[in-house]
Design goal:
mainly alpha; 2 domains; 72% helix; globular
């Protein structure tokens, strides 16, 4: 594996620093995953089945959608294509990250660490590059592994706690639904610059219009496409 260096020194962060950098993501993932585990048991899944969904799908909001589709008896192909459409944006995360990292960045183990590129992991990694750190595969493994483990562990705790764990705390349950969005917004603000404002504005506008006039999934896809096109046209 290739170590990274940042602008301040010859040797940059590795696996352990990736684990530490994932702390904000872990703090955001644990309660959301807990609420997913609770929702899964409320829908009739066993704790093992709830944990298996997190192990295999590992896609945040898409897991709640998958849960709704599975429990409502939606056809398998409909459920599969819906989840694929909702997560198409992840296909662009690896290439975007490698472009930012530069041509000399190691891609030897990309097949492995790229599996952990969620919205928040991508945002944290991109933020590290924007702050002057060079790309590191060990760092990416630490970042992705900590996030993945926290999601699976949180799901397990929620599933074991059972369906009634949050029924007496409606305010807490409502707040948990906003934590992922708040976490990603914080990561976005950490790398936001004046040059990126038109890109962000285009993405937000397309996302809002797509959501209002079509669906949430369409809004996400349109926002992603609009932001990418705006970024390319401004270069």
């Amino acid at each position: 594996m290739t170590a990274i260096s940042d602008g301040a020194g010859a040797q940059g962060p590795g696996f352990a620093q990736g684990l530490r950098a994932a702390l904000p993501i872990v703090l955001g993932y644990l309660p959301i995953a807990f609420s997913f585990g609770v929702a899964a048991t409320q829908s009739g899944l066993t704790p093992a089945e709830a944990v298996m969904l997190s192990l295999v799908i590992y896609a945040g909001a898409s897991q709640f959608l998958a849960l709704a589709l599975v429990t409502s008896g939606a056809p398998l192909l409909v459920a599969a294509f819906t989840l694929i459409a909702m997560n198409l944006r992840h296909v662009l995360y690896g290439p975007a990250l490698m472009k930012q990292a530069g041509a000399t960045a190691s891609r030897r183990h990309a097949w492995a660490w790229a599996l952990g590129l969620t919205d928040e992991v991508f945002g944290q990694a991109l933020g590290a590059l924007a702050r002057g750190r060079r790309f590191s595969e060990p760092y990416m493994f630490g970042l992705g592994l900590a996030a993945y483990a926290s999601w699976v562990i949180g799901t397990g705790f929620g599933a074991v706690a059972g369906g009634g764990a949050l029924q007496d705390y409606p305010a807490v349950q409502a707040g948990l639904g906003f934590m992922l969005a708040a976490l990603f917004l914080a990561l976005l603000l950490s790398i936001l610059s004046r040059a990126l404002l038109p890109v962000v504005a285009a993405a937000i506008l397309a996302c809002v219009l797509g959501t209002v006039f079509w669906s949430g999934t369409a809004g996400i896809l349109l926002g992603m496409i609009a932001g990418a096109l705006t970024g390319v046209l401004r270069r």
